[in-house]
Amino acid sequence: MKKILFLILFLIAALPCLAQTDNDAVYFEDDDEEPVEEADSTQTVIELRTAIDTIHTKDKYTDVILFDNQTWEYLTHPRPGIDSTSIYDGWWNTETLHAYISYPKDSIPAEVDLLLVDETHGFKVPYQTKVHSGFKWRRRRPHTGVDLPLDTGDSVRVAFDGVVRLSSGSRTGGYGNLIVVRHSNGLETYYGHLSKRLAIPGEPVKAGEVIGLGGSTGRSTGPHLHFETRYKGQAFDPERLIDFENGALRQALFTLKKDYFNIYSHYGQTEKQEAEAKAQAVAASQAQYYKVRSGDTLSRIASRHGTTVSRLCQLNGIKSTKILRVGERLRVR
In sequence order, what are the beta bridge partners of 72? Predict the structure, then answer.
């Protein structure tokens, strides 16, 4: 009887524990086993993938990367910008005609992209007209710009935003009254033969601002604007940038090639003509010259250098009847 009563009392005492829900259940773990964690349903599964190919697009700053799991994504490269702080780059000189005269040409890359205009930096044609004389070899000397005919006193405008580096009428060679403006992308533009200069060194200028008046100072046969474009001191054909007749910029982003620093290389050439221009430049670098002495004739000079009179005439752009001057330099190779 006592055992039955004890069992009844034990069940009454244990009843609250047996009535516990699953949420209140107590679990006991073995000290030798790691606790099992429940999976996090919000955890992202990262799928490993390997790039297997790159496709170039029309935009040279955007590529498409293909992966081995048949997915793809765009890859963008840094684009050139217009940073005005780079104008003064250590080669700044307000008195020297060519500030980059000693800049190492070998340090210029084979190609460089130049952003010419953006949302805040504009363009204006210096003077709108048809080019009279272009970037070429002319009268036995390189003509490193374009000549734009105008009337004396006509307004000459700066092409791009920049800072005036040089404004001078002396020690400018054949340029006469000259203004040189430096632009933040490494370009400099030259405005020569002006009748009047309206800007001073160190002055910031905006595209379209009048910086001078047209004229015929310096080595000039009549009123015109001599306009040049140079990168790190090296001249190239301005018509690669500007359509002067229509007063328009050809493109906002310009790829400048090192081969363009060649007086035989100009806008509008075919690939074959570009190759020929490059070959001409190499030949010109190997050219040999002779200084005319008293008593010299074309025949005597040709014989002395193992060539012909017709070849001498061709190399120097002269006729066989030309009267030679003592001290004159003739190309013989």
Answer: 66
